[in-house]
Amino acid sequence: MNDAITVVGALGGDPALKSVNGDRVAEFRIGCTARRKEGEEWVNGHTNWFSVEAWGGFADHVGSSLRKGDVVVVLGKLKVDQWESGDRRGTSVKIRAEHIGHSLRVGPTTRERRASHDVADVVPHTQQSQSAATVPQHDSDAQAWGAATAPLVVGAPGMSA
Fold first, then answer.
1. Is residue 80 included in any domain, yes or no?
2. What is the DSSP string of 82-110?
3. Which candidate, 28, 35, 31, 36, places its Cα nearest to that of 9?
């Protein structure tokens, strides 16, 4: 079974940073809504919600770079768990993120790179197989995704180019 997944969607809230057994973790929810154009109008389809977690130093980058409403691409490992609480049962779907980036489909972003970073420190193993979510096919479709009119800035405060 291949549990690698790629999703594109909007953050439902700001990432929450916390510590679990001494490790940093950032958690947030991402909503992925299928959209289609009917005539001149955009129509929303069903929204799938995923919980996303990022660990270690990655969590700090997520916390300083992402905000509610940002449209992002998340690549990670899918984890599906069954849960039980009293007489209620359900299924939770979580993505343990390996990569997260702003979608350039909805607007430009910039990244500030630290001079001290070595590529080997920030590039994990290669992804082998992933499925991609549907995104708008034309630049003008960005309005259908609620694109911000100003560019997004990606990077932790205090980072220099």
1. yes
2. EEEETTEEEEEEEEEEEEEEE-TTS--EE
3. 31
Domain holding 77: CATH number?
A: 2.40.50.140
Does any domain span residue 139? yes
Q: What is the pLDDT of residue 1?
A: 53
Residue type, 78: L
| Strands, E assignment, the chain | 4-11, 16-20, 23-38, 41-55, 71-85, 88-102, 109-111, 152-154
Dihedral, CA of residue 28, residue 104, residue 43 and residue 78, to nearest 10 = -40
31-77: pLDDT as tens digits: 999 889 999 999 999 999 999 999 999 999 999 999 999 999 999 99
Helix (H, G, I), strand (E, B) or coil at 140: helix
pLDDT tens digits for range 109-134: 888 776 655 444 444 433 333 333 33
Which residue range forms the structural domain that includes residue 64?
4-154
Q: pTM surpassing 0.70?
A: no
Tell me, rounded to whole angstroms, the distance of Cα 33 from its chain centroid. 13
